[in-house]
Amino acid sequence: MEKSLKKYFLFFVGPTLIAFLIAFVIPFIAGIILSFARFTTMTDISWVGFSNYVRAFSNSDFVNALKFSALFTVVSVIIINVAAFSLALLLTRGIMGTNIFRTMIFMPNLIGGIVLGYIWQFIINGFLSIFGVTITVDAKYGFWGLVILSNWQFIGYMMIIFIAGIQNIPGDIMEAATIDGAGPFTVLRKITIPLVMPSITITLFMTIANSFKMFDQNLALTAGAPGKETAMVALDIYNTFYSRVGWEGVGQAKALMFFLVVVVITLVQLTITRRKEITN
Amino acid sequence: MKKNKVFRYLLSALMAAALFGGCAKKNAVPSVYLLNFKAEIQAQWEEVAAQFTQETGIPMKVVTAASGGYEQTLRSEIAKSAPPTVFNINGPVGYKTWASYCADLKDTQLYSWLLDKSMAINSGSGVYGIPYAVETYGIIYNDAIMRKYFALPNKAVNIAGVGDIKNFATLKAVVEDMTKNKAALGIGGVFASTSFSPGEDWRWQTHLANLPIYYEYQAKNVGDLEKIELTYTKNYQNIFDLYINNSITDRKMIGSKTVGDSMSEFALGQVAMVQNGNWGWSQIAGESGNVVKPEDVKFLPIYTGVNGEETQGLCTGTENFICVNARAPAADQEASLKLLEWLFNTPAGKKNVIEKLGFVAPFSTFGPQERPEDPLVKEMFRYLDDSGLNSVAWNFPTFPSQEFKNELGAALYQYALGNKSWDDLTKETVTSWATEKAAIQ
């Protein structure tokens, strides 16, 4: 058995391994190399050391985008998770039409980001026109527009994950707690939340990563306007790469730094929430 | 059984040979691969390619980049093993990116046919990009509405028609009086929306900004500058103010308007004027419910109040330059030149250029009768043929970078909203020009 496993190891793992190499490892290494180079195309590069990293901070765009993304992430992660969890609690009570509601709330997640961005641009501009302004008049409209958009898109998805977690809680624990005299709030705090911790780990990870990396919604809704005040990091990287001659390597350097930031933040989050998980 | 096995090996060997043979063949026969810049004429290019292959036997492939995505597509395509052999660059700044890919076209027939040799992209003694389609822009106006205005008994100006508008002062007087009479004229505003939706501000930060830069270059007798003073900033403000103060759309709302909105307002007769180029004709004609007749679509130069602007014509030039890929196999480069020679010098090729692609080709091989049938192109030649007028050159290909244009666009928008003074806009633009010019080495 052992021997035949070894014999067929490459056969079974090979295709995935090759796909992983082609689609992830090689581009990633190429990306690291390019961040230290000046290039027009991948086949035509010259080494420039750390100057791309220095140039990335030659204006405040990158730092501003990081700040904007961070603020956006904090706000939208809180709202999305609280709302998704509340909806999940509501829709696991066996109310009539639960399935219809679940489907309806999940559906926005099936629409692509660019389309969503344009649709919400119409809606928000339509609403703001009552006050005679548009979404690009002030950065705070753009900020809240993005928050609304991302909430609308992700709450349903996160809710499904929470529902799965809540449904996994054994009924006897709930029953025992109720018999012991625990009120609904105590049950929520002492039983439900600790037992859905694995789901919280996942939803937090996904919302933090998604909010930080948000690109298409940002591009379609405001494209960074007014000025670059609503440009998130991914959009800033894109603009750096394509809007100046000779700045491709700088865009690459920013992308690598951005990758490290996202990795650190999500790792910290994973360790913290993992520690709180308990097995039932 | 054994025979079967042998047969099987033979078959697979044969198939492999056919596969590799196919590859070898592809390298042996020269072919053309054109990366098309204009998404709106994708189908037309495909037809042209089919006809070229049919007539010359040279295989030709056309790939069209998505609108606004040419640089991205070119970057990925040119790194492939079968890269484009013919591609576009957008002027001197684009040439900086692609210099090492552009073949020297100095000794080609195409260059010898070029009417105005100064329009080509030169570097040292070589010629690396050749313009192939001349375009023009100005203020497009609806003559029916203008005639209606000049027939008004209470008009405040004492000129008889649009033909008498020769400078900014007159234009301003007419436009402002038209705004007063907009109910009588049946329009919502004189000018179409000053579009400032994200990515839709190029008419202001590129085309309109070209005028002050053009006059500054003229005054200093140069073709490019590392640092500008924006000496004609007041003129820039004149025309921009005129646009936003006499627009169909309130200045607080322009952030939601696109170029498409502006063109449809014009096509529907809601406005009398819109700043755009001859490419806008297809948008006007294609608008459903269009009320503007082709013979009423005319051009007016963009007057800004510069001394002596009575002789100013339209802004005519190009930002599309054709390049041959210097790194493609020599035979493919030759085939590419054959395509260009076929396109711009044979009757069949020229017919395609005029009727299908709709280019106004700046080559001596085209006679005065060989022009696209389009009211705005006719207008362009009306101005070009008037020897008393000077065209404004397209200097925006020398603008430092897209980043510069984006910053200028954002500043113009903030000015329109009332959040920024014109003085600040001027200072920032001067600084941004210098830093962006320094940033691209």
Q: Summary?
A:
The complex is a heterodimer of chains A (280) and B (441). By secondary structure, chain A is mostly helical.
Protein described:
The complex is a heterodimer of chains A (280) and B (441). With 280 residues, chain A is mainly α. Chain A is built from twelve helices and two strands; from the N terminus they run H-E-E-H-H-H-H-H-H-H-H-H-H-H. Chain A is 74% helix and 2% strand. Chain A has a two-stranded antiparallel sheet with strand order 1-2. In chain A, strand 1 and strand 2 form a beta hairpin. Chain B is globular, with a radius of gyration of 25 Å. In chain B, the strands form three sheets. In chain B, strands 6, 7, 8, 9, 10 and 12 form a six-stranded mixed β-sheet that branches. In chain B, helix 2 links the parallel strand 1 (32-36) and strand 2. Chain B has helices spanning 2-28, 42-56, 70-78, 92-98, 109-113, 143-150, 168-180, 182-185, 202-208, 210-220, 233-245, 259-267, 280-286, 330-345, 347-357, 375-385, 402-417, 422-439; strands spanning 32-36, 60-64, 86-89, 121-123, 126-131, 135-142, 189-191, 271-277, 297-300, 312-317, 321-324, 390-392. The model of chain B is unreliable at 13-26 (pLDDT under 50). Chain B contains 18 helices and twelve strands. The termini of chain B are far apart. Chain B is an alpha/beta fold. At the A-B interface, helix 11 of A face helix 3, helix 4 and helix 17 of B.
**What characteristic shape of chain A results from the CA principal axes?**
globular
Strand count of chain B: 12
N- and C-termini, Cα separation of chain A? 35 Å
Please compute the radius of gyration of chain B using only Cα atoms. Answer: 25 Å
End-to-end Cα distance of chain B: 70 Å
Question: Ranges of chain A with pLDDT <50 over ≥5 residues?
Answer: none
Order of adjacent strands in the largest pleated sheet of chain A: 1-2
The residue fraction in helices of chain A comes out at over 70%
The profile of the biggest β sheet of chain A is: 2 strands, antiparallel
Q: Helices and strands of chain B, in N-to-C order?
A: HEHEHEHHEEEHHHEHHHHEHEEEHHHEHH
